[in-house]
Design brief:
Length: about 200
């Protein structure tokens, strides 16, 4: 640690920024390419000049410059805080509610790993991203059932369900009612009671 140009507090900040950064690949800035190439050249010749004090200082400075540029590039792209990951995912879900999507693809769109997305949701929301997506779809479907006269099948496809049967199954799981029962209950229409017996 004493051979670095960072204080221990600065080094901890750099470590946390790199650890919390999205793990998605992204274009490398020309400045970062230049710094890495220069650092690589310096490392290749460093063994020959190891005893030179100036050489060690130059190498430490180049490492620091490279890390600062990496940090700058991370800041310019993607989300880096778990709460930001959840907010970005929620926004993405709402903007693409009717689209077919999988969680791995959502994570890729957000620039985070699938594991990071799951962990952020577990800590921030208390449920898996897929469960949250289903909840969001059901909430939107319930709103459409209550405020429009659209057909149930149309609402199912419009909120991202592949079939009206699957939609009805999931809707009932979340609300205790089928979509038609939910709409009837909201409109005050009494359903005929089922008679027991033969």
């Amino acid at each position: 640690m004493r051979n670095l140009s960072f204080t221990s507090g600065e080094w901890k900040l750099v470590e946390s920024r790199l650890r919390d950064a999205p793990l998605a690949s992204r274009p490398v800035s020309p400045e970062l390419r230049r710094l890495v190439a220069a650092l690589s050249r310096e490392v290749q010749t460093w063994n020959q000049r190891r005893s030179e004090r100036l050489s060690r200082a130059r190498l430490r400075t180049m490492v620091c410059e490279t890390l600062v540029e990496v940090d700058s590039q991370i800041e310019k792209t993607g989300v880096s805080v778990p709460g930001d990951v959840v907010v970005a995912a929620q926004r993405y879900f709402l903007e693409h509610l009717g689209d077919s999507m999988n969680i791995r693809g959502v994570a890729r769109q957000l620039g985070v790993s699938r594991g990071r997305l799951f962990e952020s949701f577990r800590r921030g929301v208390g449920m898996a991203p897929h469960d949250f997506l289903l909840r969001t779809r059901i909430d939107k479907a319930g709103e459409l059932l209550a405020t429009t006269k659209r057909q149930v099948t149309d609402i199912a496809f419009g909120t991202g369900f592949g079939s009206s049967q699957y939609f009805s199954t999931v809707f009932r799981k979340f609300t205790g009612l089928t979509p038609l029962e939910y709409r009837e209950e909201l409109s005050g229409v009494a359903r005929p009671s089922k008679k027991s017996g033969s």
